[in-house]
Structure formats: C-alpha cells, structure tokens
Amino acid sequence: MPVHKPALGVLLNVAVFGLLLFPPARTLIWWRAWLLLGVVLVAAAATLLVVLRDRPGLLSERFQPPIQEGQPLADKVMALSFLAAFLVQTVFVPLDVFRFHLMSRPGPLVSGFGLALFAAGWGLIGLALRENAFAAPVVKHQRERAHAVVSSGVYGVVRHPMYAGGALLAIGLPLWLESYAALLLASVPIATLAARIMAEERFLRRELEGYGAYTERTRYRLVPFLW
C-alpha cells in the first residue's frame, strides 16, 4: 500500500470529526473540539504506526468500504445503522451546545472523565487491532487469509473489544463537549452495536470453526461481568 494512503486515512479521521462538529457550531472558537481533534490525530496516527504497520493485510482490510461483497445482509443494515446513529449523535452535540441548551452542562470533572473515556475507546480499538489480524470492518469469513478465532489479549476479556471501544467513543465525546442530551443519544449507536453483535455471532458460529468454543471460554460480549 502506498505510504500516502495511511497518512490520508489519519487526516480523514480528523477531517470527518471536524466537519461534523464545527459547521453545526457555526464557529471555530471551540477549544474543547480542537483538543478532541488533537486526540483523534494522535490516536489514529499511533494506531497506524504502532499497530498496523506490521499487518499489511489488516491495513488493506481496514481501508475497505463498510459494505462489501459476501457480507451478510443483516450486517450491511447494522453497519450503516451504526454509522448513521453515530454521525447524528456527533452533529447533535454542537447543535445542543450552541443552540438548543436542552440540559445543564457537565462539570469539569465529568467532562474530563469524558475525554479520558474517548481516549480509552481509541486505545481499546488499537489493542484489538494489534491482537486480531482479521479485524475487518465488516462481518465475513476471510478464507483467503486463513481466518481463525482470536482469543488472546483483550479478546480474552470480551468477545468484541472493538465495539466496546466504539461505545466508549459514543459516551466520552458528548461528555467532553458538554452535552448531556447528546449523551442520552449514545444509547442509539450502542444499541445498534449490540444488535450487530448478535447477528455477527450467529454468522461466526455457523461459518468460523472454533467460534462456539470461544464463546464458552470468553463469556462476555461487550462489558465484563455484565453482557
């Protein structure tokens, strides 16, 4: 893969968050959003440089679109639903902060905790990518890559650590940007992730040898000791 493509991927992550936050806010004077973009830049670059540089096959997979050939219909629906829900939630944050003011704002400790959750979400996704060479953005059986069950590292704690990281992003972002109303909206993308997990596990039990036994060893799907 050309060197410029991963670099563009990092910048694209930053640009997407910027476009979702600043135009609805109608201002660039929003230091919390700028700091969030800095976290996205550092986290995305670190993931590519540290986690993915030795996994060219995985790197290529991560740059594939969210809808692919051979992907189950249920996963296509759930993938697009999650993306739509997360985008709507993110756009709602500046609308609430600068226009709607639907609820009181989180205090400094709570909002700071939100930034920590957001960074932890990126970190958890990075750990999952480092551990799982088959972490494609869609559900499919990667026969050409000798697809096998991964049960080490964070996959020994929960079966879907990348989705757990995504849930932390959905919770941490509105807290840091000071919108309790948008935090309530986080229930929509998180519920979509839960539905996608159920559909994904039915597919993997059927198609991937050893996945059923893995679910017996690693009991929790998303949150340890809860679900």
Report on this model:
This protein has helices at 4-25, 31-51, 56-62, 73-100, 108-131, 161-176, 180-185, 187-207, 211-217. By secondary structure, the chain is mainly alpha-helical. It has one domain (4-217): Four Helix Bundle (Hemerythrin (Met), subunit A) (Up-down Bundle), CATH 1.20.120.1630. α5 (108-131) packs antiparallel against α6. The protein starts with a helix and ends in a 10-residue tail after the last helix. The model has no long low-confidence stretch (mean pLDDT 90).
- The radius of gyration computed from the alpha-carbon positions, rounded to a whole number of angstroms, is 18 Å
Named at the architecture level, the CATH assignment is Up-down Bundle
Order of helices and strands: HHHHHHHHH
Q: Please, what is the average pLDDT?
A: 90
- State the helical fraction: 55-70%
Count of individual helical segments = 9
Per CATH, what is the topology?
Four Helix Bundle (Hemerythrin (Met), subunit A)
User: How large is the share of residues in beta strands?
Assistant: under 5%
Low-pLDDT residue intervals, each spanning 5 or more residues: none
Total number of β-strand segments? 0
Count of all domains: 1
Separation of termini?
38 Å
Largest sheet: none
Helix/sheet category: mainly alpha
So what's the overall shape? globular
The first-level CATH class name: Mainly Alpha
